[in-house]
Amino acid sequence: MALLDNRVAFITGAARSQGRNHAVRLAREGADIIAFDICAPVFDDIGYPAPTPADLEETARLVRAEGREIITAIGDVRDQSALQAAVDAGVERFGRLDIVVANAAVSIWNRFWEMPEEEWTTTIDINLNGVWRTLTAAVPAIIAGGRGGSVIVVSSVHGIKASPGAAGYAAAKHGLAGLTKTAAIELGEYGIRVNSIHPGVVDTPMSRSSRAAEILSQYPRYADSYRWPLAGLNRCSVDDVSEAVLHLASDRSRAVTGSQMVLDLGLTAI
Ligand SMILES: NC(=O)c1ccc[n+]([C@@H]2O[C@H](COP(=O)([O-])OP(=O)(O)OC[C@H]3O[C@@H](n4cnc5c(N)ncnc54)[C@H](O)[C@@H]3O)[C@@H](O)[C@H]2O)c1
């Protein structure tokens, strides 16, 4: 028997990178998937390319290749009705919801007092409010199932330590730790566990942002906040992160809730 046989997972930001890899990994363990992504740029000049609808279709192909079912929805985590429609369609199709991976986010680099308000509010609205909206859309369906469940909030090392050059990102990711701990208490009586993960640098388009490179070369002292002690590895892989997500999604972590799981090459230890 696989770890997630017959369970259903709702994953935001699933068109590529970490979100896609989580979808495929959870499907390999028996889960059916509801995959949600905007599949378009959320901001001009963000410093890295956006995924397309074809990327989300590729996620669907990979999930089906694992022998599981998937439904996809193109939408924005700033749009509560789009999230609710995706959850409702998934529950209608699969009959249940057990797991949420709130993964969609953006990374916009600038010094905080030079950041146009639109960059700050876009970051907070997607990375923090978008996770609240995702949980708000999905949690009632998990409660209604009466079987408990697992919510995984994707934060970052920058939900634990400073992120010079990306204060909006750090503020949102710190906020997620507060949401996670509080949600763990409010959902405990329903047997729903809520944990956040805090990856370090992960090998995806987001971590190759040209705006990050510009800021770090302009202000070299900021690099002090982006060093890690683990020699030989210069990034986490998407598989490293998916293993953590799988652990938290499955009953292997049945005693774990309200936690902040760090997978960061030791970055937060410095
Ligand atoms: N890459 C890293 O170094 C790193 C490190 C720590 C944490 N993280 C976090 O991991 C998660 C995944 O990031 P990634 O590295 O795979 O980046 P990515 O840019 O490849 O993937 C993010 C996905 O989220 C989607 N998305 C963005 N805004 C959206 C919106 N408004 N509505 C719906 N979907 C939206 C994007 O289209 C994209 O498919 C994010 O929460 C990110 O903050 C990344």
Automatic annotation (TrEMBL):
<dbReference type="InterPro" id="IPR020904">
    <property type="entry name" value="Sc_DH/Rdtase_CS"/>
</dbReference>
<dbReference type="InterPro" id="IPR023985">
    <property type="entry name" value="SDR_subfam_1"/>
</dbReference>
<dbReference type="Pfam" id="PF13561">
    <property type="entry name" value="adh_short_C2"/>
</dbReference>
<keyword id="KW-0560">Oxidoreductase</keyword>
<dbReference type="InterPro" id="IPR002347">
    <property type="entry name" value="SDR_fam"/>
</dbReference>
<dbReference type="GO" id="GO:0016491">
    <property type="term" value="F:oxidoreductase activity"/>
</dbReference>
<comment type="similarity">
    <text>Belongs to the short-chain dehydrogenases/reductases (SDR) family.</text>
</comment>
<protein>
    <submittedName>
        <fullName>NAD(P)-dependent oxidoreductase</fullName>
    </submittedName>
</protein>
<keyword id="KW-0520">NAD</keyword>
<dbReference type="InterPro" id="IPR036291">
    <property type="entry name" value="NAD(P)-bd_dom_sf"/>
</dbReference>
